[in-house]
Amino acid sequence: VKLPSRTDEFVLLAVWRLQDDAYGVKIREALMTMTSQDWSFGSIFVSLERLTDRELLASRMGESTPVRGGRAKRFYRLTTEGKAALLRVRALQKDAWEGVSEAALALLPGNSG
Amino acid sequence: VSRPKTAPDAPPRLASWLMVTFFRRERDRVVSSLEEHELYSDSVAGDLEEVYFSLSETQGIAHARRWYWAEVIKAVLPSFNYRIGVMATMFASYLKTALRHLWRTRWYTAINIGGLGIALAMGTIALLYARNELSYDRFHPDQEQLYRAGMSIYFGELDVWESTPFPLADALVRDVSGIEAAARLTLLRARGVLAGDQRIEAGVHMVSPDFLSMFDFPLRYGTPELIDGSVILSTEEADRLFGETSVIGQTLQIELRNGEWTTFEVGGVARTIPLNSSIQFDYLISDRYYDAAFGPGSAVEWQPKSATASFVKLAKGADVEAVARAADAVGRANNVDQFLEGQEVAHVIPLQRLNEAHFSTLITNRILSPNGNPLSVMVIAAMALLLLAIACVNFVNLALGLSARRTLEVGVRKVFGADRGQLIRQYTLEAIVVAFLALVVGLGLAALLLPTFNATMGQHLSPALLTDYRVLLSLVGIALVVGLVAGSYPSFYLSRFRPADVLKSSLQFGGRSLVGKGMIGFQFGVSIFLISATVIMSQQLSHLTNINLGYNKEHVILQDLSRGLSQQSLDLYRESLLADPNIERVSGARAQMFGDGIDSALLVELDGESYTLPASKIDPDFLDVMQLRLASGRNLSLDRPTDADRAVLVNEAFLRVFDVEVDDETPFATTREGAPIIVGVVSDFHFQSLRNTVDPMLMYLRPESDFRQVLVRVTGHDLPATLDRMEARWNNVGNGTPFTYRFLDDAVSSQYVADSQNRRVGSIAALIALVIAVAGLLGMTSLSVARRTKEIGVRKVLGASGARVVLLFNAEYAIILLVSSLVATPAAYYLMNLWLEQFAYRIQVQLAIPIGASLLVGLFAVATITSKSLSAAVRNPVDSIRYE
Predict the structure, then answer these.
(1) For position B627, what pLDDT does the model report?
(2) pLDDT at B505 exceeding the cut of 60
């Protein structure tokens, strides 16, 4: 099965961390905290749609809230496949990074230098 | 979902709408029902809004709005890219299919592209021509405020003159409150110019100080200011005189008055003046030289005698009516209304917008460039439209004819899921592709034909105009419209087929439809009309040349003189010329008589009424040169002292209008100069164009005044050598006036230039219409023959002869031809009678002409149909029935 992209991976992680509070605004906040970068809603929505389409995420509509002009929230949660994908990514990363220590990386002579 | 009303601090509405409407890249795959769609859009908008509100609280509403817009754009742009990509792919596929189909039916495509191409070439030229004609004087930045002041005058009839009193412009800007600036333009015709060792004769324009600031004539070199002793040259004239354009500081001499030369230094060189400017000049000098040119004291006279045009610039938003009334008051205060001979007019000083001067029917331009002919613009535009219509009809007809071959294609496309809109797009695109290919052909043809057009119409349109982006854009627009118009009916017709019918082959398809027949009828009708119109125009014009003019226009050479020639000089010149055996007679006249009619007049008081009548000073030999006949009485004679200032000759029309006697003794009227007597009557001759009948006119001697024209009757033998000898002799007596000449017969036919231009355009259009229509018919017939192969076979098996089959095809079109002839004949009859009404001497429209034209078109149709159907008719039925 295809690996999720980096963006998708972060989104999946954000949804998992947020548990029952995983909707657009919170997911964006979580991503910004995780990566210390600005995230646009456009890219997040595209990723959420893609993951929903591939059935790594499922969604349901919540109650409408007055804060957002009476509009309802859409809450996301990981499906079984979603969890499996995250686990697979984590395992792969572990394998890939095996034996590479921070110190060793810092000592490596760079090409540009 | 309930939603509160939009709060004032709500996010930008346009941005929300963009987001909800266009952010849907993969939504179609995520949500399936419409309700879910809405819910989803809502949640997306809600997320954005939540952050927006918190941002507007912490960072202010402006920051929040900026953020919101940025978010929406970032979200929506990629989805736009995606949609454009999809559209491009679709378009490429349509285009490929279209090109494939056009290539498969390449002969019909060629007929279409050829026909449309010729029509579009005509359309392109018409567009360039109309654009130039309709854009006259619109390049001045303040063109809406610029007006020309004319002057009402009674001169036999009420007229408005372009020529105004010299002091008028200054008086207008001083005394009329709505006028913020005024300028004068005075034309000195045919002045001697000396530069180095070159001596030429040219028109010189004198202008008032405000001229260069009121009008937009930018300079290439120098400052736009005319000080005494400086001249501004046009680029072309600078190049002609000095061989270069940077000529500031060079000097030249201008002969402002007979023999009086003034030296000028070039102070500026103007950029090339646009073709569509009514004001054209080569030499521009200050009109402080007015008195030098016309004599001391001229500049203060309120007389319209010197060719001075006056222009005013109205203040922004000025009331034109009020300004015109005030201008009238200025005119009346200075007695300008004395030239009206007591006639009532709306305005003594009429104001006319400068950008309307080109098509003015009020004022005949003599100082400004000659008036345009709105009829020519309309004729050419109408021809172009008719040809485009004919070519479109070909496209529609051939597309319908070909539809028989495409029903299967349509059926299969529909079975595979194409909806009707998709098919319509496909077939419309085909038409647009044809139109654009035709546009390429048309542009090439237009570039090739432009010089011919310029020569025919006396225009100076440059082929470089074809690459002007505005022209190209309008042409692309026209091609697009032509493609859409021509493609719409066939595409709706084709896309209507139902797959089940098509695939079962139970469909009866068109070609015999009323629409198709109607359109072929239209083509026949237009062809018949154009042919008839052209023939009638030719007949009328040759009728005009065959009318007895009352004089002999052949072998007469006219010399127009820019300055006067005395009786003594004429006698000297005549004596030296008559030594030449190829020169028969020599005479002179004061007025130009055979262009637009006599341009001088005499005020005559007769029976208590006063009349301004066309009149001219002549030399007694005038009758011999022109070969006029004396109806009664005798010719004028220089040998009789009383003839010098009393005797006049009149024409027969004069006697018809006025009840006077030919009497050598008794004066018949009074003039400012005295009491004239009629000594002779000449038979009527057409000194005006044949649009008019002959008006009363007078001729007199008055030997002390000057001649303005020399008329020489030659034998016509050895003309070039005769002209050379004339020139040599002229230089002895001509007092420095260069030898210029024209032929009387050319001058006469120049009265009908516009008519013969229209006839030529008409005949070309008629030919093109016929060619396009015949090509279309060719295509239609071969399609119809192909479609009916089996039917022909069956008919032959049942005993029909080949001739009978050919007749069958012809009969189908005979009725159409008859109907279109019945429509085109009265149309041609009516419209051409309207055109003929402007001529006092006109032919009767004969019904034989449209009937003949119908027969001619019919002949072409029969030849076309027969040639195409013959091959099918003689084929062995065994082959034709088996062809499936």
Answers:
(1) 93
(2) no
ipTM above 0.85, yes or no: no
Q: Is residue A113 predicted with pLDDT exceeding 80? A: no
Mean pLDDT of chain B: 85
> Are the Cβ atoms of A49 and B74 closer than 8 angstroms?
no
Which candidate, B419, B417, B407, B413, places its Cα nearest to that of B505? B407
Strand B742-743 to B601-606 pairing: unpaired
In whole angstroms, how far apart are CA B753 and each of B457, B494, B595? 9, 50, 12
Report chain A residues whose CB lies below 8 A from the CB of B43: 23-24, 61, 71-74
Rounded Cα gap, residues B121 and B880, in angstroms = 42
B188-192, B223-227, B315-319, B777-781: least confident range: B777-781
Strand partners, B814: none
Task: Single out the residue of B161, B181, B167 nearest to residue B333, CA to CA.
Answer: B167
**Residues of chain A numbered 74-93 and touching chain B (CB < 8 Å):** 74
Residues of chain A positioned with their CB less than 8 A from the CB of B70: 40
Shortest CA distance from B9: residue in chain A: A69
Q: Return the structure tokens found at B420.
A: 């009707």
Nearest CB partner across the interface for B4, out of A28, A70, A74 = A70
Helical (H) or strand (E) element with A74: strand A72-78
CA-nearest of B299, B293, B219, B287 to B254 is B293
Q: Which of B30, B47, B53 has the CB atom closest to A41's CB atom?
A: B47
Nearest-CA residue of chain A relative to B11? A69
What number of C-beta contacts closer than 8 Å exist between A and B? 88
The 10 Å CB-count burial string (b at 16+, else e) for A18-51 is beeebbbbbbbebbeeeeeeebebbbbbbbbbbb
Nearest to B43 among A50, A67, A73 (CB): A73
Q: Where are the alpha helices (DSSP H) in B750-801?
A: 753-787, 789-797
Give residue-wise pLDDT tens across range B682-707: 999 988 888 888 889 999 998 888 89
3-state helix, strand, coil in chain B (%, to 5): 55, 15, 30
Inspect the interface and report whether the beta carbons of A68 and B3 lie closer than 8 Å. Answer: no
Asked if residue B190 lies in contact with residue B201, where contact means CB atoms within 8 angstroms, the answer is yes
Q: What tokens appear for B695 in the block?
A: 């008006």
Could B3 and A69 be called an inter-chain contact, meaning their C-beta atoms sit closer than 8 Å?
A: yes
Pairwise CB contact (< 8 Å): A23 & B47: yes
Residue B510: pLDDT band (50, 70, 90) is very low
Determine, for residues B26 and A70 on separate chains, whether the beta-carbon distance falls below 8 Å: no
Query: Looking at residue B155, what is its pLDDT?
Result: 65
Pick from A89-103, B12-26, B292-306: least confident: B12-26
More confident residue, B353 or A4: B353
Cβ within 8 Å, pair A41-B48? yes
Interchain pair A24, B44: CB under 8 A: yes
| Residue B353, both tokens | 């917008």
Q: Distance (Å, rounded) from C-alpha B773 to C-alpha B321?
A: 53
Q: B50–A68: do the CB atoms touch at under 8 Å?
A: yes
Tokens of B455: 């020569």
Mean pLDDT of B219-228: 90
Q: Which residue has the higher pLDDT, B682 or A67?
A: B682
Single pTM value for the model: 0.68
Contact yes or no for A72 and B42 at CB 8 A: yes
Q: What pLDDT is stored for residue B263 in this prediction?
A: 94
* Residue B6 clears pLDDT 60, i.e. is over it: no
Within 8 A of A41 by CB-CB distance, chain B residues are: 44, 47-48, 51, 71, 74-75
A75 contacts in chain B (CB < 8 Å)? none
Contact B27, B43 (CB under 8 A): no
Residue B233 near residue B283 (C-beta atoms within 8 A):
yes
User: Which of A42, A50, A72 is opposite residue B46, by nearest beta carbon?
Assistant: A72
